[in-house]
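Possible regression after last week's pipeline update?

I re-ran a chain I had predicted before the update to compare outputs. Posting the input and the new output here so someone can diff against the archived version. Not blocking, just want to make sure nothing changed silently.
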Amino acid sequence: MNISASLNVFRLLTNPALCLPHSTIPTFNHLPLPISKAFPASEKGHRPDIRAIILDKDNCFARPKENVVYEAYHDKFQALKAAYPYSRLLIVSNSAGTNSDPSHADAALLEKNTGIPVLRHSTKKPGCGHEILSYFRNIPESGVTEPSQIAIVGDRLFTDVLMANMMGSWSVWVRDGVVEEKGLFTVIEKRLAGYLLKRGYSPLTPLSQFES
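New output (post-update):
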């Protein structure tokens, strides 16, 4: 059970836009590189200064419950790694690397198969933003000095996208994923996002310390 998601979803009652992504792509193969191309330019023509990327695993770049990159996404995954070296990529999953992963065996296997570090975190998304920021504070070579320099890529609005907005980071929603999700929460997420957009809601824009 994801207690973090169950609790944080109530934030939507007062701020529904927290679940809206800054960019939407059909699948991982559609992820633009550099990822800053996914986001709108400012009035001065500047795009976000994205220095690190957080990747969800299940149904983002891998089949659910598998710890290997989906074969059809192999080339895009390698291109992403070339564009963003080791210290600038981090996998944050709600399965591998959490307390649901005994001895973090899945996290270790995922790291071996992808060549990307996997965050070990006690709180599941969307509540582990502080653990992500703590990770990057200890990796100065990533160049990350503030949340607005991070982009989060994932297939869930109530976890990946909600976490990005709570952190003050950018989000890319992988709408279709590897396989079609028909779970109740997935259906609710998509219907709510569509309803909010029709009502004129828009995603929150992360601001750097120089823009605030």
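Follow-up from reviewer: compared with the archived run. The two ends are 37 Å apart (CA to CA). Marking as no regression found.
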